[in-house]
Amino acid sequence: MEQIDVAVISGGQSGLAAAYALRGYGLRPVVLEASERAAGSWPRYYDSLTLFSPARYSSLPGMPFPGGDPDRYPHRDEVVAYLAAYAARLDAEIRTGRRAAGVRKADDGFEVDLEGGGRLAARALVAASGTFGRPYRPTLPGLGGFTGSVLHGADYRSPAPIAGQRVVVVGAGNSAVQIAAELAGVARVTLASRGPVKFARQRILGRDLHFWLARSGVDTAPLGRLIRTPPTQLVIDDGRHRAALTRGAPDRRELFTGIDGVKVIWPDGVREEVDTILLATGYRPDLPYLADLDGALDDAGHPRRRDGISLSHSGLAYVGLEWQRSLSSNSLRGVGRDASRMAQRLAAYLHRG
Question: What three-state secondary structure class fits 23?
Answer without folding.
Answer: helix
